[in-house]
Protein 1
Amino acid sequence: MLKTNTHSLTKDLVGNKLQCISCHLKGSDDKPGTASGIGTFVDTATAFPAYSKREKTVQTLQNRINNCFMRSMDGKRPIVDTEASIAMATYITWLSTGKTINLNEKRPCGPSNSERWAKNIKKFTKIQKKAKHTNYTNGKKLFTQKCISCHGVQGQGIASFPPLWGKDKTNHSLSYNTGAGMSKLNKGAAWVQSNMPLYQGDSLSNQEAADIMLYVNAQPRADFDLKKGLQTNNNMGYYNSKVLEEKHSVRSNFKALGLDIDKIRGDKKIK
Ligand code: HEC
Ligand code: HEC
């Protein structure tokens, strides 16, 4: 979780420069996923196995973890029951030691996240649906004030502070792709409001978080094509999903909220 893109068991499966802890933050005990903001792992295991609308199947905790590799990590899915998959599921399960089983029929999320996601996604959808170019420029201004000291002007990341978008010199994506939860305007805003700026979670207003992630998620990042992913991923074992086709781009993520990316950005430079 701490060194996902350099650890020998997972480095070949990660396509970008992120670690699990880039989004499942360390708490005061310095352990992955114990911070209390949205995305915490403190009671995640109590909810699994859990139904997922995205895959239209009941997902085990290993399924859930491994799918993040194709999206948030822009890489390849580990095989269920191999060492890395078991290790990560074991760690997350251990965090729930002593907690009551709390299976989730609605979404594959632990009790500390489930309703928080639902409530905040609804809130940000309402705000972001009305977005105009001025919200984009406001997002850019706020990003410059509150985020570039750690994430860089180009969103490229600085030292151990992770990248938010863009590519490296070898054309590899630096951050999450357009199939990741974070790339959805409303989910991204919910996460950022709860967790960023680092150690100052819950400091951004609704409009600020909405506009900042309108700006961040309008920047270039890798497209997601599940079908292609499954082809290049053909030794990943059984894939527990009834949905085998799914495509996303920056453009389609905006369209999902009824927004035209060209109008929002005020230009036509982006795919
Ligand atoms: C770019 C940010 C990002 C990264 C990196 C990331 N995740 Fe996630 N993860 C999310 C978001 C956002 C959600 C919830 C939203 C969703 O369902 O898409 C989530 C949900 C989860 C959940 C469900 C937790 C719960 O209780 O709701 C698990 C388990 C999980 N991720 C595991 C991992 C593991 C393991 C890694 C590293 C291999 C990882 N994630 C990397 C963003 C990320
Ligand atoms: C003081 C430094 C700091 C500031 C300021 C900051 N971040 Fe972060 N951010 C981090 C760190 C560090 C992580 C990853 C957590 C870790 O490695 O422990 C992170 C993770 C993220 C992630 C998920 C991982 C990724 O790279 O995609 C997003 C999205 C993000 N920050 C957005 C923002 C936004 C938007 C702002 C401004 C409102 C902001 N951050 C301000 C340090 C910072």
Protein 2
Amino acid sequence: MAELTCRYSSVQTMGTLDGPGVRFILFLQGCPLHCGYCHNPETRAFDGGKTATVTEIMAMVSRCRSYFGKKGGITVSGGEPLMQAEFVTELFKECKKAGIHTCVDTSGCILNGNIEKMLDYTDLCLLDIKMTNDKDYKEYIGCDMSAPLKFLQKLSEKKVPVWLRQVIVKGINDNEENVKLFNGIAEKYDNVTYTELLPFRKLCESKYEEMKIPFPFGIYPETDKAVIEKLTAFLTKTNK
Ligand code: SF4
């Protein structure tokens, strides 16, 4: 049988922001959502990017292995990695055989049998709870809020450790009430070990210009560090 291939946009060999330790990050191509602050709009089209087999990705991962140390490993991000769950399963199986820590960075927008299988080989999930009410999810993200909550429930059943994350945007979710709702979601599940708030940034603005598409959140200012610090003080799960 021919080896599975993925569509990916890029890789990062020394990532330190998406999971524990130093990591190899694979950005898969294709995402069904349209988050107003999407920082990787070039990864959304399903027919873009490059292709690679599991063997080819594992060769790239192996070259970085000496940097992983005890904590590091691979993070599959995107785009939306759940859309290529069969490939990620095969990749993670190979990582597990090689003793490499596996992490998926996702919006949790869909769930099916292939994704459930993938979770059996996933050591950690970085899950974005992008908003804390259904209206904002529909308006700014492009799915129902029930989708990531259903995904989180499945992560709980499968006992996959989770870090919950949310990007804070001034005028939309930069308030204490929102953080309380976010805490409430995190506290419901023992497998959520860590929560993090991230500032909205506009570094991606030039990508939108190059692609000649509007940047929906271009009208909002970047989020001040002080706001993140103030709201982070309300988080209840902050020990990694
Ligand atoms: S889930 Fe990620 S890749 Fe998809 S639209 Fe949102 S920010 Fe962009």
